[in-house]
Amino acid sequence: ISYAGKALRRKSHQSQDTLGRINSILEETVQNISAIQSSVAESYFSNATKKNLYVYLKFNLSAIKRSALALPVAEILSTATLCFLLWYVGSLLFGGVPLLSAPEFMTFLLIFHQLSRPARSFADSLNRLHRGLASGERIFEILDLSEESMIANKGKLLARSLKKELILERLSFQYPGSTAPILQDIDIHIPKHSHIALVGRSGGGKTSLFHLIPRFYEPSEGRILLDGHPLAEYELSSLRNMIGIVPQESHLFHDSFYQNISLGRPTTSREIIRAAQIASAHDFIMAHPKGYETQIGDRGITLSGGQRQRLCIARAILLNPPLLLLDEATSALDSESEQAVQKALFRVMEDRTCLSIAHRLSTIQDADTIFVMEKGKIIEHGNHQSLIRQQGRYHGLIRFQFGDKEEHILQNKDKDGS
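Below the sequence we write its predicted structure tokens.
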């Protein structure tokens, strides 16, 4: 029973892992069906699904065989043992060895027979238990994780506003399980009501740096100070409540425009409409028959990329946060919408501190300080004019995007974007 149970548990665990891969493939296939069809990759994903289904079937059949054999084997062993006892003890009795009397031996056989059925039931229950444990182990891996609030070391200070500055001091970071650092020796001073921009090639660590400020991850080395206090000293929910984030990828839910902007926060329709107007989202929302009560579909599938991103901007504006993090906030917008949203963001940024990531350099030339990142390090910093004069990496990015003529226009561009 022990041997069969261990083998059954191992096979069941492999079966559950394979089922997880199958579900992952099916989910990704459905979510990205248009990309698969446009690339004529249906056969590849079909074969990948079939391959994993075959492996799943193989592990399941193996587990079922072991489970099915357990009871017959237990029956055979029980019967064989009974036959052996009859032969052995019977031979002793007939041979004149006073081991047991005949009535005592018959009583023993009766008891043995009565105990064999519960023993077989125990074997069957143990097999089901091992199969359940194999499934439960995958759940326990999640349940045994420490709560985020415990990992974050519950602080006692309440973060209500940014009074003086945010300082990133000798910051280094690498993702759990990774051997290469993503960020190395980052030093950034962000005064209150300043606009700080991060630019550089993709993969330079800009978004990873953003994730450290709301404490989605903890730095490997160094610290982040908010008004002189490490972030760990602040209560986590209050810290995140004062940070508005517009991510590079829009995260929307199968709900109404209203709920996607409010995200469950108690608010009024007037505040929702104002945030949507600032983000240039009000007009396309009202173009729907039900307005703000219109259901946008799973992940906002009924909307364009620009419309989804404007809803995320409206969501951040609604919070009225003292600290605003913009991760390529206008990357999915067309030129006309980008200008409208950019002007709105300029108005929003006037009374708050802003840290933004941008690949379109025209959107951050008015930043107080621009930090150029490459391979997780800061290689240049300064305002737009000083970086142009340095003739370094930033100057090369400007020339690559705009050329000499556009560079001259950027150098003389007014604050209002005219």
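The beta strands are 165-173, 183-191, 195-200, 221-226, 229-230, 243-246, 323-327, 353-357, 369-374, 377-382.
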